Amino acid sequence: MQVFDNHNNNIFNLLSEGVSEGIIVVNTKQIITATNSSTEQMFGYDKNELIGKHLDTLIPKRYLKNHGHHVENFVKKSEKRQMGHGRDLHGIRKNGEEFAVEAGLNPFELFGSTYIMALVIDITERKTRERELSHWARIFDESLNEIYVFDAESYHFTNVNKEAQRNIGYSMEELETMTPVDIKPELNKSEFKNLIAPLLNGQKQKLKFETIHGRKDGSTYPVEVHLQPSAVGDKNAFVAIILDITERKNYTQKLEKTVEERTKQLREALIKEKELNELKTRFLSLVSHEFKTPLSAILTSVTLLGKYNLTEQQEKRDKHVTTIRNKVKYLDTILNDFLSVERLESGKVNYKIEDFPLSKIVNEVIYNANMLLKNGQRIQYPEIIDDLLITFDEKTLELVLSNLIHNAIKYSPEDSTINILIEEDNDKLWLKIVDQGIGIPKSDQKHIFNRYFRAENAVLTQGTGIGLNIAKQHLENLGAALDFSSEVNKGSTFIVKIPKKLNTQ
Q1: By the 8 A CB rule, do 239 and 228 touch?
Q2: In the 3-class helix/strand/coil scheme, how is 165-193 assigned residue by residue?
Q3: Cα–Cα distances in angstroms (integers) from residue 486 to residues 125, 289, 401, 426, 428, in the given order
Q4: Can you count the helices (H) and strands (E) in the chain?
Q5: What is the CA radius of gyration of the chain?
Q6: Which terminus of the chain has fewer CB atoms gathered within 10 Å of its CB, N or C?
Q7: Which positions ≥6 away from 36 have C-beta within 8 Å?
């Protein structure tokens, strides 16, 4: 050991080299005046290489900011103490490697000068063990399985992790006064001793069994116990890892329930598939019939047109031209309905919400409908709508009103009136189409908005059965609604309900 001067050099060397801890002596300016070989080996320096260097040489730069201030305070108080006061201390080796240290400081006077002697210990291994212990303690406490530790003689619990406390309902303070028997309502102390006897006599290293645990609230739950001997300090103990097997115990019941549910879903899927196949069959039949009839009429009219080539036969030619025009318009309507279905199903419908006079749409729909009226039929125009503005999708409203009025004409007798009524309040607008037609049978009313459905008293009347379905879907997409009331042989009333403030999101 190189001392601050030559006095008593041999004594210091003898004392310092006899200890395994590092010894560093600095003056009040924190200049190193003496070290021992343990210090030099610990920090990686050659013999006497540290003499005359500032103490900062052995301290990582990130800790230097407050270090000088701490040393000055220590010198002023001039008292022996442990350095750091609970803070982690670090040194730095010559090669730049940082490591954890523990240091005790002791000021002393020698030849009229003040010195500080530091006893330094490399605690890298201790810190590593502490971290490992902290890691395992955290795993123990944060495990999702229940873990119980209890004394091998008294059986009292010595440690129980958080998950076990949560599930069992007892606090650690309460559990410290309890034993495993207290939470196992199916076992008494004698039975428990017999159960763990193979562990006590060394016949087995581990036990695995199922039992019941009782919670503080009186409820119970099935568990699987993995029990093995251990030690806490110099005392024998047992560690029990507990698996809550409530789900496993209920597995059969859940499996049966799942099978039942899957069977039900499969049955429903088969029914839907059957309905879909029936729907496809109905659709093909419908398309075949609805296209064949107007096409046949068109073909007949075209054939007859070729025969009426005289001037005085103009009236007959006009009649067939009108027939062709009406049948083509009907086919166009059917195709538009089918395209609407496709767009609705694919979500490709784009709506344009704007303000427009209600009279504009009503006038256009009635004008086109007048050409379809039967003998003596008439449409009663709604009163006082000239100044009524509506916020909606114009094309959608035209499609809906056209469909409802055309149906009213189709299913009403000659010499009947179709009324269009308009009502409103602060929130809604009601458009009512009232006819005096054949009505809808009560048994069919729940299906009236189903696609391709035709009421039993309407199957002989031309139609696709998709108009009402399309109208309802369009309205609901825009936050509106379509409802109806009907009585056989007295007529039907279809009601379009449009909110004045639309949710256009």
Answers
A1: yes
A2: HHHHCCCHHHHCCCCHHHHCCCCCHHHHH
A3: 90, 27, 18, 27, 22
A4: 13, 18
A5: 48
A6: C
A7: 1, 16, 17, 19, 22, 23
Residue 457's CB: how many other CB atoms inside 10 A?
16
Strand, coil or helix: 432? strand
Q: Please, what is the Cα angle at 137 between 169 and 236, to 5 degrees?
A: 80
Cβ(404)–Cβ(497) under 8 Å? no
Pairing mode, if any, of strands 157-160 and 146-151?
Answer: antiparallel
Closest CA to 439 of 448, 431, 450, 430: 448
In sequence order, the β-bridge partners of residue 356 are 390
The class of domain 251-339 in CATH terms is mainly alpha
Nearest residue to 354 via CA among 312, 400, 389: 389
Nearest to 385 by CA among 366, 357, 354: 357
Task: Please name the helix (run of DSSP H) or strand (run of DSSP E) that holds residue 327, with its range, or none.
Answer: helix 314-346
Per-residue pLDDT tens listing for the chain (505 residues): 444 455 555 556 666 776 788 999 999 888 999 899 999 999 999 998 999 999 999 999 888 776 666 666 665 665 555 554 446 789 999 999 999 999 888 888 887 888 888 899 998 888 888 887 777 778 777 788 899 999 999 999 999 999 999 999 999 999 999 999 999 999 999 999 999 999 988 899 999 999 999 999 999 999 999 999 988 878 899 999 999 888 888 877 788 888 888 888 888 888 877 766 665 665 555 565 556 666 777 777 777 777 777 767 787 777 777 777 777 776 776 676 666 666 666 667 788 899 999 999 999 999 888 888 989 999 999 987 888 999 999 988 998 998 899 889 989 999 999 999 999 888 899 999 999 999 999 988 898 888 767 777 665 566 666 788 888 988 998 999 999 999 999 999 999 999 987 765 4
* Domain ranges within the chain, ordered by starting residue: 9-128, 143-249, 251-339, 349-499
Q: 349-499 maps to which CATH number? A: 3.30.565.10
Which are the contacts of 488, defined by CB distance < 8 A and separation ≥ 6? 438, 439, 440, 441, 442, 457
Q: Where are the beta strands (DSSP E) in 202-337?
A: 207-214, 220-232, 235-244
Structure tokens at 144: 């999702």
CATH architecture of the domain covering 9-128: 2-Layer Sandwich (3.30)
Do the domains 9-128 and 143-249 sit in the same CATH topology, yes or no?
yes
**Residues, the chain:** 505
- To the question of domain 143-249 being in CATH 3.30.450.20, the answer is yes
- Give the span between the Cα atoms of 295 and 317, in whole angstroms: 18
DSSP 98-128: EEEEEEEEEEEEETTEEEEEEEEEE-HHHHH
